[in-house]
């Protein structure tokens, strides 16, 4: 079995775990922080905006079962790729949408997928999700891991109340 990693930021990491976690070929999904300049940041530090980090998920996957291209397609359908300043009710740099690539191949796949999404006309506004090189990834505190399983009522209320679920229904499930 081969293993590769993918890192995606799409707003609150609680909402980014479940869609990947329940997909065949995914070995592990970890909530955490990346893209900043402070080593081993805490949730409170990241929320302050002073670390430069973005909430993200690190996905360990088997490329013989699911391709990076397929992961990118799942990613698009969890986010508003037209909002560079956060996602849904979560605003600011720590919630910005980013595909962090780990190789030139991942970069090429992400860029081509972004171009295809823009050309598709699925969204009227420009696709502004950033595509950046991967940086050190720091796992978040344990209580953030697999949050949808640990606290399903809170997770469901948050993902609906934040506007994420409604956006997905409107733009992707139609």
Mean of all residue-level pLDDT scores: 96
Number of self-contained structural domains: 1
Oligomer designation: single chain
Q: Indicate the CATH topology.
A: Peptide Methionine Sulfoxide Reductase, Chain A
Please give the radius of gyration in angstroms: 15 Å
Tell me the strand order in the biggest sheet.
7-6-1-3-2-8
- What would you give as the CATH superfamily? Peptide methionine sulphoxide reductase MsrA
Alpha-beta content class: alpha+beta
Tell me roughly what share of residues is in helical segments: 25-40%
How would you describe the shape? globular
CATH architecture: 2-Layer Sandwich
Question: Count of DSSP helices?
Answer: 7
Order of helices and strands: EHEHEHEEEHEEHHH
Distance between the termini: 36 Å
Per DSSP, what share of the residues sits in E-state strands of 2 or more residues? 15-25%
What is the tally of beta strands? 8
What are the low-pLDDT stretches, counting only 5+ consecutive residues below 50?
none
Catalytic activity: [thioredoxin]-disulfide + L-methionine + H2O = L-methionine (S)-S-oxide + [thioredoxin]-dithiol; L-methionyl-[protein] + [thioredoxin]-disulfide + H2O = L-methionyl-(S)-S-oxide-[protein] + [thioredoxin]-dithiol
Domain Peptide methionine sulphoxide reductase MsrA: 5-156
GO molecular function: L-methionine:thioredoxin-disulfide S-oxidoreductase activity; peptide-methionine (S)-S-oxide reductase activity
Function: Has an important function as a repair enzyme for proteins that have been inactivated by oxidation. Catalyzes the reversible oxidation-reduction of methionine sulfoxide in proteins to methionine.
